[in-house]
Amino acid sequence: MSTRKDWDTYFMDIAYMASTRSQCPRRHVGAVLVQGKKLLGTAYNGAPMGVPDCSEAGCMLVEEYEMTNVDGEERMVKKQRCIRTIHAEQNLLLFTDRTDREGSTVYVTDQPCWTCSNMLANSGIKEIVYHRPYPKDADKVMELMQARGIVFRTLERYEPPADTVMNVTD
């Protein structure tokens, strides 16, 4: 007899399934809105509706410089970021109602970036559960969530469903 999945695993599995809809070659992200045990919405990262996505038109990369600690030394590092896609968390907020979000939980495959965290902090949700870390914004996002009283936690021992995980590119 198989063991029944706990609710965190169940909803994170659904977030990973949503991420398989993404056409971004750099990162597939999925997000799920849950009120109690009721699924209220799913979303993934991608270009706006009706607009060619990264698989059709290529990534729309911008270059940014960022201070990074490399071997104990602060260095300025050049990074590329795609701006063609709307993040999964942003799509989730666009396609769900504020009343549904009040007191809800968001499950997301990846720790939200700073911009998504700001939006989630004002969305009415009470909890964010994620799987993969996003170290770039981790400290300031954690501070924001503490200041807003939003539970912010990772599923450390979670294993995503087969065929839902891509290699992540920074």
UniProtKB/TrEMBL annotation:
InterPro entries: APOBEC/CMP_deaminase_Zn-bd (IPR016192), CMP_dCMP_dom (IPR002125), Cytidine_deaminase-like (IPR016193), dCMP_deaminase (IPR016473), dCMP_deaminase-rel (IPR015517), Deoxycytidylate_deaminase_dom (IPR035105). PROSITE patterns: CYT_DCMP_DEAMINASES_1, CYT_DCMP_DEAMINASES_2. Keywords: Hydrolase, Metal-binding, Zinc. The keyword Metal-binding applies. CDD domains: deoxycytidylate_deaminase. Its cofactor is Zn(2+). It comes from the Bacteria. The keyword Zinc applies. Residues 6-152 form the CMP/dCMP-type deaminase domain. Belongs to the cytidine and deoxycytidylate deaminase family. PANTHER family: DEOXYCYTIDYLATE DEAMINASE, DEOXYCYTIDYLATE DEAMINASE-RELATED. This is Deoxycytidylate deaminase.
